User: What shape does this take?
Amino acid sequence: MPRYARPLFLRLTPALDATATFKPLRRALVAEGFDPTRVADPLYVYDTDTNAYVELDAERYAAITSGATRL
Assistant: This one.
């Protein structure tokens, strides 16, 4: 997959809430964002140094939000 097409964040969830037409309810997911303190599901972020997904912990989250780490 080309670099521009890779997702930066992965969230693994057992099931998604859906509408009557089976479309996922995205508002709750968007509201939670990628803050590991607000999300109960495992979160992963793409690490360009290792070319792999690594778990998003509080340290990585702080580095991303402060601008110390670029995605």
